[in-house]
Amino acid sequence: MSGLTMPLSIALPLVAATLLAVVRRPARPRRIVLLGTLGLLLAHHVVLLVAVADGAVLATRIGGWPGGVAITFVLDTFSALMLVATSLLALVCVWFAIAAGEDERSMFAPLVLVLVAGVAGVLLTGDLFNLFVFLEVTLMPSYALMSMSSDRARFAVGRVFVSISLLTSTVFLIAVGLVYGIVGTVDLASLAGAAADSPPLAAAGAVLLAALAVKSALVPVHGWLAETYPHASPGVTALFSGLHTKLGIYAIYRLYSLLYGGEARFAWIAVGVCVLTMAVGVLAAFGQRSMRSILSFHMISQNGYIALGAVLAAPAGAAAGIFYLMHHMVAKASLFLSAGAVEHRYGTGRLASFGGLARREPLVALAFIVPALSLAGMPPFSGFLAKYVLVRAAIGQGQYIAAVAAVAVGALTLASMIKIWQSVFIAKPKDDDRHEAPQLTAAPVGLVAPALSLAAVTVILGLTGDWLLALCEQAGRGLADYTAYAEAVVD
Amino acid sequence: MSAAVAVGILVAGGVFLILQRGLVRIALGFILLGHAANVVLLASGGMSTREPPLVGDGVPADTADPLPQAFVLTAIVITFGITVYLFALARAEGDDDDTEADP
Amino acid sequence: MLLFAPLIALAVFALLVPVTYRRFGRDTGWLLAAGFTVLAVVLALQLPASGDGEVVTASWSWMPSIDVALRLRLDALALLFSLIVLGVGALVMAYCARYFSRGRHVWLYTLMTVFALAMLLLVLADDVIVLFIGWELTTLCSFFLIGGVRSGAAGPALRALLVTASGGLALFAGLILLSVHSGTTRLSAILDDEAWKSDSPLATTAAALVIVGAMAKSAQLPLHFWLPGAMAASTPVSAYLHAASMVKGGIYVLMRFSPLFAENPLWTWGLITVGLATALFGALLALEQHDLKALLAYSTMSQLGFLVAMIGVGTPEALAAAALHTLAHALFKATLFMLVGIIDRQAGSRDIRELGGLRRVMPVTATLTALAGMSLAGLPPMIGFVSKETMFAAFHDLPGPAWAGPVALALTVAAASLTFAYGLRIFTGAFIGPTVQRRLHEPSLLFLAPAAVAAAGGLALGVGVHTLNPLIRRVAVDTREQFAAVDLHLWHGWTPELALSAVTFAAGTALFLARDPVDRFLQRPRRRLDGEAAFTACYDATMRAGARLGSLTQRSSPAAHLPVPILALAAIAAAYALHPIAVPAPPRPTTFGVDWVPVTVLAVTVAGAATRRSRLGAVILVGLTGFVIGLWFLLAGAPDLAITQVLFEVITVVVAVLVLRGLPRRFHSASRRRTAVTAGIAVGAGIAAAAATFAFTGRRERSPVADYLLHETGPQTGGSNVVNTILVEFRALDTLGEIAVLVAAGLGTAAIMDLVAVRGAERTAASEQAEVPDSALIVDVVRRALTPVLVVLSVYLLLRGHHEPGGGFTAGLVGGCGLALVHLSRPAASRTPLPPIQTPLLAAGLLVATGTGLAALAAAEPFLRPAHGHVDLAGAHVSLSSSLVFDLGVYLVVLGMVAAALNRLGHYGVEAASGAPRDAPERAGAGERGDA
Fold it and tell me: CA C416, CA C394: separation in Å to the nearest integer?
């Protein structure tokens, strides 16, 4: 298969966005176009994944210019996996947003489509400056999506999100400039392994990674995430959880492995950051009092797990981390969507205002507890496998502190998931509750179905995840050895 | 050296402004930081050759590196889009752009 | 197949429960009991072969990429535990059928069946990961059965879950440690790995982790407190999970890993200490209980302590004793739980202070309780008698110092005496004495039958204990790889153990008879070892710490979040300053003297912009800075950039002024301290950025890419403006991305202002248009003259961009300036928005640009591959290029973006400035916000 069609991943949603920017009513055709585009993208990405499942690398030089001059789109197993996962999440989260009526907000559909195009660009591009551009493409619509859906303090949350992202982008851009200043190219394939021999490039790379660490909300630059995510609308939070910080982590995997190529001199700093992130995130999550605050801090904690995979030596570490990433995207979005279904129905996410929802909303309860246990690493869900491969990789590489942290943090993760479960779904219903109104029946299936479908994915992955493990191993090998990547770009 | 000094000035001013309260000031700070990034990008091509990259009959030896210029153009446009959005955000709340509830 | 069959069957049972429950109601319990029985019998057929040492294995490749397979292995140890799981399971299921009232118990039956499946998986697994999956599943089932779905038992369920699951994590770490270093997850291979049979730190760590896991699961001190709480579950659950099987999971794992660790001192002494302490402590606590169920819970804990201590002793004889006592305990404890449940159901209480004399009205129940109680107390001819004596005997061979054996034995005898005493209490408390409730009667025989079978089993296996010899001896071989010198018989002759038994009975009886002083002793106030309170305190403290940790970053102001990344970057810079790296020297000078002019101006304008308190002043100074940057670009040989920069600056200032109209004139004040800190951070960041720029730029020759672009632009594209050619041809993708950003910014601005418009609609409805003085006459004149010029200029710039400075951006901006003039020159009062052209412009532009790329794709060329052609137009030879079409897209988007800014912000500005009431109710909170 040739890589010519790869740019469709950005062109298709952009074209659909232009259409939906102009034609906004009626709702039905708009929703059909929106979901149809996302569905097509998912199908396209599955086809791409199949093409590179064996470790092949596809590349297409945009504009047909020679290698080194053209911006190249490169697809290896890792990026293909991410493409499939992100487009699956986009589809499911938008499905939820439609069910919850969030898509009625002005410009929701075109903004989401631009975001999706940007995500594909970030994952496909093999050019550092172009990576910056596509990161901006993902960010700009997100600012608006975040602000226009914020529930609290008007736009305050949007401001934090915008300003931290802008700072990150600026730093990233400056670092891109430094890279070009040092080596005279921004073509990733020509940068493979370069930082190991060039201390200046290693320094510029450190700035790049620092910017991406902010984007991935790693401790100590994590605070913005937990402050902003819980206050967007439920569908948007779920969408962001699946896309944004994960792009940061994707870029960390890509650049860390590509630039430094296994150079491990400063790995201890990175391990320390990951361990801190896991611990701080989970502790803070345990202290929160509303569903999505807990979930957001958990995301920080889990990002620490995922980043650990990048720090451990490839391919084993990367393979484990990538599997964790895949699992986490699905489980976390499922949790945000089930919490979102509750919030959408009852207008609040505060733990104290709920009780006994398990009886009234058994489907929501199921859609919550399955990914919750999965997130806590319990079998037979995907989270167990993810935790296993990661801890195994850590122990196998003698990173005992990281392994202990990864295991111990699991206990607190479980504790805070159970905290939500018991106070929202099990505890005695509170008296003053509006949701005790008798006319309320169980949430419509349409609102729960997106969360349930992702919950089903985490079960299926937990029981029959071998194919994904194999793919992740392939992806990990790709990160350990960039020969095929470089060859694909040059040919 | 001159580029480094310019970057230093712009970054210092920009950072100072983005740490203030009003969103307009924050937006102005990001404009300055954007300039700083652009100066870095341009410097990354080397400031020793400075003829405009307009080629007709041959390429003079001291023609500037055109690639960073293209980068900067892209960055300027992106900064513009974001600036407009930031101003909209500052305006969206009506009559004040304070980001902190109490002094 | 023999091994997969029961697992599959149990899974099928679990799936069928909802169906059968609809048809049979609570009698589903009987069906399940029958199913369990069949499975137990099928496995029991394997007994003779297992006794001879035959091992059945099965394997199904499950996750080959991580070498985890569904490996199963049935040896004598696994068979013993499997039979307990299935046998007791069958009894409890049958018991459920009458214990529960008619009603919805689907959930419970399903979970109990899943639990049996998990437990079977745990004991049959020959893969450490599969074993652990079984282990965790039992924990989860236990959680949901205790109180996962009921509000009443949330606390106990939480404690049970967190304690056992945390222990599980320790086990998990231990298992991974074992499998990583042995290079396989196959349990039997790990057990053959000689490396673990030493007391190396690694082996000791692994042993410790396994021990912690088992302690949590089997309720050993100090992790015992969850078990009494777990009695909040219904009685069948307590009988099955928390007496007979789940709590034996820890025992099973300890026995399973005995081949590796039995010689390890930590294992030996750790287990003996913990086990005996738990046995003694649990028995003491049992003795002070009045609630029969609580009493049984502590009793379970105590008995598990015996087992743990036995495994610690680690001789083949000790492990044989442990195996036998596991079986004995499962039988008598499940029976006792079931009987207590019956008493509770019939008499409405299980408090021995409220019961009494039930033997007259419930003689069968009394007899069965007596039988099970005798087994518990270790009286002949029950199996409990034999198992206890075997345990006594095992202490004879305790390794280690000479005093250890006698001390351990003494403690065991003490605990056994206490056991005897509370056993007597159970029986006398419920059945002896005056009959309080005379109208009670025996429950139906069906209700009693399961307990009767179990009690009879305890008797039969006591009398016929020698039939267990092959199995028990083989268990010892499985766990210690040695033959155990045990010969199980009810009557061993006059042995020292018999004497110890006699001592036990005597001491126990004495304790029972002296119950009043004993009670006073037990009930006296003392500092209690209260695990539950410790757990709660720990839980709450963690939650508080978490809340504090979270609140550190829960600030809604950007200024609270931005310094951290800046400081982190400064830290990186500082690290490099302390450990400098070598950089090459610049090949040529990069600084020209003329550079210092803009730099100096820059210093002034930036300093001014940063310190001005007037909004307008700051905006103007930032605008000036932009012009200086434009100058800088010009000096650096970038005329395109200079033009674009200046034009953007103009538009930005226009937009900023539009926005400022509605805002306070001056910025918010800040404290001196804050200003100082901020300035410090700013200067640090500036120095770091300057240093990085200085060190990493201008130190190499022109890059190969640059050379290619300079030399090939003409031949390849026909253009001569290299920068524009890069934007629309070489790196058109960057440009496509960037106009996507603009489109999103335009749409986003529209979306936000729509939101504001909705919110503000009511506010402005009644407001009157304020009179704005018409001072725009001059501008109006300028507009009339300039607008056509600007339109023509912008089209011209678009067309020539390929060759001279210009192109889509510049052209679009010039057009945008025209729009701005049109907009601003109208008198503010009559200023209506421009027609809503922004969205169509943005969409059309993006569509055109993307379409250009797709057109190439349609021709099987790479995305965005430009196509060049020539047409003869009115005799003139005009060269056309698809990149011009692409640039047209850029042009449209830029124009649309400017229109969006003017329209949305400008229009709104009029609305707000025209007198929206500031104290509208919805903004009541605004009063506290500074200087508005």
Answer: 15
Pairing of strands C68-74, A72-75: unpaired
Mutate to test the interface with B, among A173, A178, A186 (most CBs of B within 10 A): A173
DSSP letter for each residue of A4-65? TTTTHHHHHHHHHHHHHHH---SHHHHHHHHHHHHHHHHHHHHHHHHHHTTS--EEEEGGGP
Sign of CA pseudo-dihedral C740, C746, C750, C753? positive
Q: How far is CA C8 from the centre of its chain?
A: 29
Domain-wise residue ranges, chain B: 2-48+66-92
| Mean of per-residue pLDDT scores for chain C | 86
Closest by Cα among C705, C224, C283 to C504: C283
User: How is chain C split into domains, by residue range?
Assistant: 266-522, 720-761+771-915
Query: From the CA atom positions of chain A, what is the Rg in Å?
Result: 21
The C-alpha torsion from A311 through A314 and A315 to A316, rounded to 10°, is: -50
Among the listed residues C298, C290, C209, C180, the one whose alpha carbon sits nearest the alpha carbon of residue C247: C298
Using omega within 30 degrees of 0 as the cis cutoff, is the peptide bond preceding C363 cis? no
Strand, helix or coil for residue C769: coil
H and E: helices and strands count for chain B:
3, 0
User: For the residues C602-626, what does the mean pLDDT come to?
Assistant: 91
In C774-840 the beta strands, taken as DSSP E runs, fall at none
Residues of B in CB contact (< 8 Å) with A are: 18, 23, 26, 30, 33-34, 36-37, 40-41, 43-46, 67-68, 71, 74-75, 78, 81-82, 85-86, 89, 92-93, 99
Q: Rounded CA gap, A63 and C882, in Å?
A: 12
Of residues C69 and B94, more confidently modeled:
C69
Q: Report d(CA A366, CA A377) in Å as an integer.
A: 17
Sign of CA dihedral C182, C183, C184, C185: positive
**C828 vs C576 pLDDT, higher one:** C576
CA distances from A57 to A2, A126, C27, C691 (A): 10, 12, 60, 39
Preceding omega of C866 cis (within 30 degrees of 0): no
Q: What is the pLDDT of residue C923?
A: 34
CA-to-CA separations, A217 to A276, A320, C362, in angstroms, rounded:
12, 20, 67
Identify which of A199, A210, A411 has the shortest CB distance to residue C165. Answer: A411
The total of other beta-carbon atoms located within 10 Å of residue C541's CB is 10
- pLDDT, tens digit (0-9, with 9 covering 90-100), for C156-209: 899 999 999 999 999 999 999 999 999 999 999 999 988 898 889 999 999 999
Task: Report the C-alpha gap between A117 and A97 in whole angstroms.
Answer: 18
Q: Helix or strand or coil: residue C127? A: strand
Buried-state track C251-265, b at ≥16 Cβ within 10 A, e below 16: bbbbbbbbbbbbebe
Residues of A in contact with C740 (CB under 8 A): 14, 114, 117-118, 137, 140
From the candidates C114, C143, C161, C569, which should be mutated to test the interface with A, based on the most A CB atoms within 10 A? C569
| Chunked mean pLDDT (size 10), chain A, 491 residues | 87 95 87 96 96 93 90 95 96 94 88 96 96 96 81 66 93 96 93 88 93 92 88 89 90 92 79 94 92 92 93 88 95 93 84 81 91 93 94 92 93 92 82 50 81 95 93 93 88 71
ipTM beyond 0.85?
A: yes
Residue A288 has φ and ψ, to the nearest 5°, of -80, 165
Q: Output Rg (C-alpha) for chain B, integer angstroms.
A: 18
Which two structure tokens, joined as six digits, stand for A151? 């529930």
Q: What is the pLDDT of residues C78-96, one digit of tens each?
A: 999 999 999 999 999 999 9
Indicate yes or no: CB of C932 within 8 angstroms of CB of B98.
yes
Chain B residues in contact with A144 (beta carbon < 8 A): 85
pLDDT reported for residue C574: 92
Please tell me the total number of residues recorded for chain B in this structure: 103
